[in-house]
Amino acid sequence: MACAEVDAPTSHPSARSRLYRCAVAVLRPWCRLWYGMRIRLPQGGMPDVSGAVVVCNHVAVLDCAMLSCACAPAQLTFLSEAGNARGLIGLLTRALGCVFVDTEHGLAGSRRMFDRLRETILAGGTVAVYPEGVREQWRCGLATFREGAFRLAQMCNAAVLPVVIAQTPVHHGLCRIMGGRPGLEVRVGELVHAGAGRTGEVIADLQHEVTEQMESLLA
What we know:
The protein has helices at 13-35, 63-71, 87-95, 106-122, 148-156, 174-179, 199-218; strands spanning 4-7, 38-40, 53-56, 76-81, 99-102, 126-129, 160-168, 183-188.
């Protein structure tokens, strides 16, 4: 999360919503075909993630697609690398409302990025963050979390939804047939709300509770 905003989305919100829904409709069967994707929701169904921060482990190229499928009909705002702002991919990521980031603008840039994400949350949108910061293909456990997602939630008084992408032996996807990989299941947890107290303690407690829930979902 220690990144800086490079550019903001420019397409109209209603156009982004239509394109986002179309993208999810196309990606859902593809994720099922390739990864054998399954989605497991809490007993009470998918929580309302309006104005919330969704956090997830980062283990596959298309985990953003699987996360979007699991959270539908909510539209997630993802952080995207600055390189994805160019060319055909750039047109798509802009249209989907991604926030482009890089590591070149220091503290001022990080503040601009946080402001952009905070505006999204306060307007009732949903921000998705990978607190591990980097993708490690097919990792079974959790890597060390950065605190940015939890600081953002504390700043906005927003709930955090823990989600994990877990490996499962039940698999009918092409990646097992072609590469011997396990299946992937998206497991959605329960909303975690920030408590009261000193800022640093609230962030630490929030991160600890979310991490524990994610570890339990992976077990």
